[in-house]
Amino acid sequence: MTTYRIAPSILSADFARLGEEVRDVISAGADWIHFDVMDNHYVPNLTFGPMVCQALRKHSSVPIDVHLMVQPVDALALAFAKAGADLVSFHPDASAHVDRTLQLIRGEGKQAGLVFNPATPLDVLEYVIDKVDLILIMSVNPGFGGQSFIDSALRKVEKARKLIDATGRDIRLEVDGGIKVDNIRRVADAGADTFVAGSAIFGAPPYRNVIDAMRSALAR
Description:
By secondary structure, the protein is α/β, with parallel strands linked by helices. An eight-stranded parallel sheet has the order 1-8-7-6-5-4-3-2. Helix content is 37%, strand content 18%. 45% of the residues are buried.
């Protein structure tokens, strides 16, 4: 039986009270905290650095899932691993040496993931899937919160699920972008088991109502 995980993205939280927001959303049933790192270089926005992750670590009783939208990758991947991240994911096109970056993250005792933009093929997985703990499929173009779900991502989720199942390994399949109560079941049916939701949760308090509704949709 699939264990589903819901990972609220703090990109949509109230930045003035992030520690409280993290505690509140965990109390409401969040499984992970998703941490979107943007550098105003790989993507046109600027968000959080390792010090924010370190500060929030003491507020989070669940895994911190860091998604790096940065270029270059290695220095920040190590910095976030040391700052308390449990999972560190990056875009393969942002790393000069994908295999090396994966090994750097796992060498810190953290789980490593690869992220695929809507128009990025999964080809690199043929060579490094043995070093991947998480595959993250973007169902929006990275850089901004609150975007609409891109339906073609479902085909990529289906393909990634087949690749994962062929390995026999426990690799999480995460989807990020436009996830809402009314589409989460469809994304799960395509093969996803972990769901990032930002504005859908933080934009509609009380948070438990939304998370419970997502779980109800997943249970159908």
